[in-house]
Amino acid sequence: MVKLTSYFLISLSASLLAFSGSVEAKADLGACFLKVPKNPLTAHGLASTYILKKGNCDQTIADQQVFVEATVFDLDANTFSVYHPLVINEGTKPAIAPVVPKLPKNFIVGLWFGANSDSVTLTGDITDCVNGLSSTDIFSQVAFCNAHKFFQAVQIAKDAGKVTIPPLGKDPNGNPCPTTRHFGIIDQDQSDNVITTYLQSKSGHFSQATKANRNKLKKFTEISNGSDNALVADFLDPELKCQPFKAPSLMESGVQLGSMALNELHASHQHAPVALIPSNDPMAVSNNKPSLTKLNAYRRGVNQHLASNLNQANPKAYCINFGNVAPGYIQKIAKFIIGGPSPDTGAADNLLTFMGQRYAASWVNLGCDKILKKTSDITVTTDKKGVAIKVHFRQSKPIKK
Ligand SMILES: *[C@@H]1O[C@H](CO)[C@@H](O)[C@H](O)[C@H]1NC(C)=O
């Protein structure tokens, strides 16, 4: 759910900086630098704090927050678990120190990053991390460490029949439950975020979002990302009586957590047409141009089939599927989701109007209107404040030159 306007602003400010001869901004607000601790793929590293550089970003400000999510695969038991490494502001201490996870004897861990800020550049121990094409040509709001190796190890176990990814299950219409690769679910930049949340204390210090920490802090706010992953797992699935793929938390017992990695693994069950990151995804382009290398670097981080050429990630084909699938799908599930809460009450008043305005906005942001020369099939009526309150289907009109 990238804010396209800010994406273009980033590239603009990056080129201005390059012109002035300095790459790292003094105080380019929203362009965050996050220091990865030493040995991030060990139990000790997971429990070490990630430091958000002062001056650029502040973890107490909603649109400057950065989140880290770890998914662990037990290579002997062939099971998964989830851990949330903690991000804190430079020069501060955590409200409550992170729990040191008890990891399996033989394991592989992957780290996924998602930012509410315009971008996140990783610094520190980043040997196993992918931030984009380079540290100056980044994806923007996402990054991964060891993700490719993690998915490779899972694939080997899958091929050997040692691990089964739970089935998708059926929605009340008898259709398979939605995944992050369903054309009815994707937006302008699919697969771009994590589910991690943190607790922010009254004094602006952070801790992991566990039951023990909630009890200890008493007064706190829970900070999060309004991600596509959360949209499926936390909003749509409950209304559609669907079950997201979850695994035990490594921070406390008795709690199951979803994660970006688990969602992408679950999405391997997605029936055709399968939505994979297209070449015009703002996070996969390089200098506003499609880049096969950057696209595949991104796809590898979220376990998607690589494209052998840019045509295989063609925005036109993506738009055709988006237009063919999403409006019909949203209409079919309308009666189940109209009673559901809106993930963003500033954008829409319920889950159906939210899905409607999100589709209409993504149609334009992906350039589908220009590529297919027709307007969005869904339109919304908004109130005085611009909040979507009604959805209209079958609205598509040809765009004449
Ligand atoms: C959530 O994170 C994604 C990328 O990680 C970003 O595009 C989106 O703007 C964030 N959402 C909010 C509500 O900040």
Summarize the structure.
The protein is α+β, with helices and mostly antiparallel strands. It is built from ten helices and 20 strands. α8 (315-337) runs antiparallel to α9.
What does this protein look like?
Keywords: Signal. With 401 residues, the protein is of the alpha+beta class. It has two domains: 311 residues, no CATH class; 88 residues, no CATH class. Helices cover 28% and strands 20% of the residues. The chain has ten helices and 20 strands. A hairpin with a 2-residue loop joins β9 and β10. It is globular. 46% of the residues are buried. 2-acetamido-2-deoxy-beta-D-glucopyranose binds next to β6.
* Rounded mean pLDDT score: 92
Q: What is the 3D form?
A: globular
Number of strands: 20
- By DSSP (H or I, 4+ residues per run), the number of helices equals 10
Keywords: Signal
Signal peptide: 1-25
